[in-house]
Write a structure and sequence with these properties.
Blueprint: H1 5-14, E1 22-25, H2 31-38, E2 43-47, E3 58-59, E4 70-73, H3 76-86, E5 90-92, E6 101-102, E7 106-110, E8 114-125, E9 130-136, H4 143-149, E10 154-159, H5 167-176, H6 181-200, E11 203-214, E12 219-221, E13 225-228, H7 237-240, H8 250-257, E14 261-264, E15 269-273, H9 276-288, E16 295-298, H10 305-316, E17 323-330, H11 335-349, E18 355-361, H12 364-374, E19 378-380, H13 384-400
Bound molecules: guanosine-5'-diphosphate (GDP) and manganese (II) ion (MN).
Manganese (II) ion binds near residues 52, 209 and 223.
């Protein structure tokens, strides 16, 4: 689960991490009071959306101006003007996709005078099964680009969970950033605090880009992107309270209501599968035959007809879906239940795209009979390989028609 920058900074502040003072606002009318409270003389007005690249982003609407999603203001009047321009408008960044995201909240911060910018992140590294700390002197830039162009400028430190964060990790960070004296001490202190926050809140990722040294000689987190482990959220009601549903994929929200494991992807083939392993195998085989899946969806082992109907509706509601592949192995799940769910869903939402169904296992004959008797235009498949080839062919056929 992701949260906004201003919320992330509030979480980090609890752990003593250095961040600027700031106020979140939801309407232009709140801008003046927020700016006056902070005092100036320099403010930063920052769009709050769950996507990075805001500084270099552009607004769709002309009245939002052309200064990007993060703006430096030098008077209360300027803060007010930027708030009026940005709130309610759509910001497009490299991370939002072409549709962009509407800016409904702004964060007004005390501006910092920047002497140098760095990159720092922590994440759960699945390869080592440990928390990795990644730092670079190339701050404020796209880290993927840095990794590609000058990988030697990225330093990764892996932390052994048995020892936790040790002073030498902090010293490695300071050294990698070329910091000495008081700034090296600050970097060591910051690293320890970030690690503590990361563990305590069950984060999945924490990215500070840029981490800056101010002209006053202080280390400060200028940006903060925090993501939390969804499976640990039950331990953190304070974090759950920060959830902004307007930032999340509507299909994923709907799926979570029905307790379906659903993740929206970018492709064109909608998938309904039971079991995470089978679902992944299905995505792989679709890619093997040259197309891309539109989603990951595990309806679970013992799904009811209602759940299957809900799942099917979520898939068909996605305008990117050009074909659907239902791939069910009936173990605990019975094929006739799936068949009835699919048919109930098609009857309520209609079927505009090709549908390939592969059923195997418990009650497979009844399931196939239900589909046949329905008179629906369903393409039956023998096995997974056959199913994947058929849906890929169907989607391509539709594309060329
Ligand atoms: P992002 O573009 O979404 O990653 O948003 P950031 O929070 O990183 O802000 C974008 C850029 O704005 C930063 O890389 C800085 O160069 C600049 N910026 C942000 N806050 C300040 C500030 O307090 N003072 C100055 N001078 N620049 C800032
Ligand atoms: Mn940033």
């Amino acid at each position: 689960m992701n949260i906004h920058e201003y919320q992330g900074k509030a979480v980090l502040r609890e752990y003593g991490v250095p961040v600027a003072r700031g106020r979140a606002i939801f309407a232009p009318a709140e801008a003046e009071a927020a700016a006056q409270e902070l005092g100036g003389p320099v403010w930063v007005v920052k769009s709050q959306i769950h996507a990075g690249g805001r500084g270099k982003g552009t607004f769709k609407e002309a009245e939002a101006g052309d200064k990007g999603g993060v703006r430096l203001a030098r008077s209360v009047e300027e803060v007010k003007a930027y708030a009026r321009q940005m709130l309610g408008h759509t910001l497009v960044t490299v991370q939002t996709g072409p549709a962009g995201k509407q800016v409904n909240r702004l964060y007004i911060e005390e501006g910092a005078e920047i002497a140098s910018e760095f990159y720092l992140s922590m994440l759960v590294d699945r390869a080592t099964g440990r928390i990795a700390l990644v730092v670079s002197t190339e701050g404020g830039m796209d880290i993927e680009q840095v990794a590609q162009d000058s990988p030697d400028k990225i330093v990764t430190v892996t932390i052994d969970p048995a020892t936790g964060l040790m002073p030498h990790h902090g010293r490695t960070v300071a050294k990698a950033l070329g910091l000495t004296g008081s700034l090296a001490k600050q970097a060591e202190d910051l690293t320890a605090k970030l690690y503590q926050a990361f563990l305590a809140k069950d984060m999945e990722m924490l990215e500070i880009n840029p981490l800056v040294v101010t002209k006053g000689g202080e280390l400060r987190c200028l940006d903060a992107k925090l993501a939390f482990d969804g499976n640990a959220l039950y331990r953190h009601p304070d974090i759950v309270a920060l959830r902004d549903l307007t930032e999340e994929d509507e299909k994923e929200i709907e799926a979570s209501k029905h307790d379906l494991a659903y993740i929206a992807l970018d492709g064109t083939i909608g998938c309904m599968v039971n079991g995470a392993g089978l679902a992944m195998a299905t995505l792989d085989i679709i890619k093997l035959y040259g197309e891309e899946p539109a989603n990951f969806l595990d309806v679970g082992g013992g799904a009811s007809e209602e759940k299957v109907t809900a799942a099917f509706q979520i898939i068909t509601a996605d305008p990117n879906v050009k074909g659907i592949l239902v791939n069910i192995f009936g173990g605990i799940m019975k094929c006739d239940v799936i068949a009835r769910g699919v048919i109930a869903a098609v009857k309520t939402v209609g079927l505009q795209v090709p549908l390939v169904v592969r059923l195997e296992g418990t009650n497979v004959a009844q399931g196939q009979e239900i589909i046949r008797a329905s008179g629906l235009n369903v393409i039956a498949a023998e096995d997974l390989d056959d199913a994947a080839q058929k849906i890929v062919a169907a989607v391509r056929g539709a594309g060329h028609a």
